[in-house]
Fold these 2 entries.
Entry 1:
Amino acid sequence: MTAAAQMLATHPADAGGVDRDALVECIEACVACAQACTACADACLAEEMVTELRRCIRTNLNCADVCEATGRVLSRRTASDASLTRALLEACATACRACGDECGSHAEMHEHCRVCAEACRRCEQACRALLAALG
Amino acid sequence: MTAAAQMLATHPADAGGVDRDALVECIEACVACAQACTACADACLAEEMVTELRRCIRTNLNCADVCEATGRVLSRRTASDASLTRALLEACATACRACGDECGSHAEMHEHCRVCAEACRRCEQACRALLAALG
Amino acid sequence: MTAAAQMLATHPADAGGVDRDALVECIEACVACAQACTACADACLAEEMVTELRRCIRTNLNCADVCEATGRVLSRRTASDASLTRALLEACATACRACGDECGSHAEMHEHCRVCAEACRRCEQACRALLAALG
Amino acid sequence: MTAAAQMLATHPADAGGVDRDALVECIEACVACAQACTACADACLAEEMVTELRRCIRTNLNCADVCEATGRVLSRRTASDASLTRALLEACATACRACGDECGSHAEMHEHCRVCAEACRRCEQACRALLAALG
């Protein structure tokens, strides 16, 4: 069990009727994506062709911030707030879709963009899966 | 001019056709709200009646994280992404509505909750005003 | 009174024997600096001469993250931890010194760097003043 | 290879002469610790005996913020700044030491505190190992 899964399993509140696996996967995906996007933005910044990677850098920075906030909110199970959770998951999925597309467009040229795009796709899927599970 | 207003005025990109005043007000409201919510969560934690303030603490922590992410995304004007901006403003308004209501319910008993509720109302209004300006 | 000052004044814990003005100034400086650095990084990214602003962008991104964490920790007065506060203020002053110097080196060319350098200098001074006040 | 390891391996800059394994371990430890502390703070908040867990909650919130900032700064390899890295690693190790001790003191009573203490110990060790590697 990952630390995130252990933390959820040992929380005094139940998962609020939510699919626990979907919740853990989303937390982990958000946390991993935030780090990948932070690193990718920096890698793009170091590339010779940085002038063509402005949009990518900026999209990565936005995605990192949104994924981080989402991972944190999802980690809080006390008196869970479904309307905020849904709105934030929508924003996170939007950020990850945009970032996955943008990094994906540079994937053949830059390996770090390929890796980051994967992290974004995983996170987008996890957000949409959790949204569906929340009903 | 505040630092946030100066930063926006000196950015090489224009405000992307957005109402500059609405954008600056929202950035400043998000930044102030994030700090107020962090401080209020801690003040509630120190109160004797902390057992009755769990929901308030948790709502404050969520609001701080969402406002912070929103303030950051709004501060980035390069290749601005309207769909993410809208989704995040919706999430932020939702967080601030919930937090303003929750803190407001404790305002008569706890001054820090009264101050925080004001910050949340200001931020919720600023988010909704910017959403309207984005069209 | 600013919201940050009000929040500190209404906290059930005292300021822990700390110079309240120094604490409030530091919180406000951290919060303002974090936003300025986020905005400056983005403005630099949009500049034609972005290739010469890589270090500046990266320094801004680091400074934003450190200032944000410092502002948050300083906002928590419950069971205050002096050793962490000192260590973090040292890191923050270091980040602001580096960023103030870097942005300062581009100030004549880019107004946003001039504004940001001011925010960094203010924050560095506030961190050092608070460190001195902590004894 | 984890995503963090892949991102570092695909960065155009080298690791700056730093022990790559130590760097990856520290990034991963920081990211995992930040999430564990956010979750533990919330779990403690939900406990019946929350009044005895105030210090723990607050220490967790501080640790989460410092670990998050540290993970981000470590993820940026462009024009790496050794003095900031060292100062921040010191602060992070301090935060993780305090949090590991505090959570550890509640570990027998609360499983989430036991899990969190492990994450903090791992992170403290990783920070100190990387500090040693930086020389």
Entry 2:
Amino acid sequence: MLTGYHVAVIGGDARQIEIIRKLNEWNATVYTAGFDQLNESFTEATDLEFDSNQVEKLDAIILPIPGTDDSGLIDGIFSNRVIQLSEEWLKKTPEHCQVFTGIANSYLKELMVKVGRPLHLLMNRDDVAIYNSIPTVEGTIMLIIQHTDYTIHGSTMIILGLGRVGMSLARIFDHIGADVSVGVRSSKAAARVHEMGLKTIDMNKLDQENMECDILINTVPHLVVDHHVIKQLPSHALIVDLASKPGGTDFDFAEKRGIKALLAPGLPGIVAPKTAGRIIADVMCRIVKEKVRKENADE
Amino acid sequence: MLTGYHVAVIGGDARQIEIIRKLNEWNATVYTAGFDQLNESFTEATDLEFDSNQVEKLDAIILPIPGTDDSGLIDGIFSNRVIQLSEEWLKKTPEHCQVFTGIANSYLKELMVKVGRPLHLLMNRDDVAIYNSIPTVEGTIMLIIQHTDYTIHGSTMIILGLGRVGMSLARIFDHIGADVSVGVRSSKAAARVHEMGLKTIDMNKLDQENMECDILINTVPHLVVDHHVIKQLPSHALIVDLASKPGGTDFDFAEKRGIKALLAPGLPGIVAPKTAGRIIADVMCRIVKEKVRKENADE
């Protein structure tokens, strides 16, 4: 339980709704800003008033998953209000006040250093990335079915990268009946792909590998799906790039060759906002609870 | 090879394109009607002229998957032309001429009895139904991801029926990470569900079973998803009914309770027309080849 724990949730999307629900469930005192246009209302949440003394009680602040923009503005899909995260306001929070976000740009990182409050980048965590790979895989399945006129079952598929998402992709697409090869760099990853009963592609010498396939999924965040790779794809092939923007695909060249290529980062929030919200909420609440438990033990 | 074998393909959709491709590949002589608005043209196919003596050479006629309407009219998505399948014309075909369709209404069945030509109902075949279950499962996955805000992984799912489609659904959704129960009537099916490591629901006493779940998929072609079942579903539940029209769900009651329910027959032709066409083409060509082989052996 988080009784007596004060949290401000500022801006965000449907995922924040699940976070607020979870915090209520655990009896935290919740303040919200940026949810004025939400149809349902949280009876157990209080409006956050930036000018009031609420700020002095805050044990945690939860920002949207993308953090702030380059000038510290916070976006929220449930509000037209522009919310500025200011240095002055943050300094009024108790020194132990933790700030949670998915990712952070240099503005947010520098701001947090200036005010000296701990910043948690949830999307950098291995556990969050692995939990998030579940809705990412399901979103990828949906995209492939929508954008091809053949089944995944029986298709040849190359997955580039055996990271936190690549591993989930490889396992599920193998189960669905695709003929899966996985592009890896390390001998450790090659061994794992072999153990899974799948074929290996050596990404250290991608220009010498046969890259012909029906479906190519990239998870590597730098240019790997280049001229050489795209040239080998048949006209009916589909490229799905899951790497964060701008992806790892030469989209211009793919278009020239008439190969459909989709850049699809951020699938969890799109295809399963409820699950994605729960993932964030669970991990965040675990961090907070762990801290509360430690403090109680120290006393 | 089908050299010297004459086939007329009359009407249909994208699946027929694959069938024509396959027949060309095997060197059959192909006549087509109802493809005048198709962008690509078949260089190796001849236009079928109903008044010519082409009819006397036909070894096989391929109708659209849905057969004809109640007055013998043939539909084709690549033509505005109305094509009538007449008794008079069919009688001009050689006596051994085989007619292929997916399903047949009583008009078509009676017509074929009158003219005394063998009629093959491809969709009634176990092999076609099992091959078709692959795109059906993928279409079902797509629909579920589109219509829920939670992942399939971790959801509780009930599948009603362990037939040719139910078996494929149970296996794949288990692999994707759903918590799957399967509704069955026979002790044989219950044993198979147990062997697959899944939970059984006894459809002989559905009114005594706990039907609460996140996702309910029906494959049984009579009313099984009734008041009693729907009442037990939570408001976020999704019903997908794959049984042929009108399905096995009380859709009016589902709507009254605010439960989303989708009737989704014919998914293969929608989500993967290329694969669906190949399935039909492969089975049809196997039947034709088998017959040709037998005739050659008899001579």
